[in-house]
Amino acid sequence: MTMPVSDPQFIAYMAAFRAATEHTAACEPCQDGQPCPVGDPIHRAFLTAKAAWEGEQK
Ligand SMILES: [Zn+2]
To answer: Which of 19, 22, 36, 52 is the 20 to 30 Å CA partner of 11?
Structure first.
């Protein structure tokens, strides 16, 4: 699969993925699957970006 690194939706998806991963790595509640007030919008943004990206692929 070719990586369309110039696709802004993919870049947003990767940025959101990185932000969510970095937060979860440092946050116990989020590691337990109970997003904290800080992590909740970060995880939501990731899911939104992921859905937008996956929607583009169909
Ligand atoms: Zn958290």
So the answer is: 36
For 23, 43, 52, 57, the CA distances from 47, given in Å and listed in that order, are 14, 6, 8, 15
Question: Does the global pTM surpass 0.85?
Answer: no
Boundaries of every domain in the chain: 8-56
pLDDT in tens, the chain (58 residues): 566 578 899 999 999 999 999 999 999 999 999 999 999 999 999 999 999 999 987 6
Neighbours of ion ligand 1 (CB under 5 A): 27, 30, 36, 39
Distance of CA 16 from the midpoint of ligand 1 (Å): 14
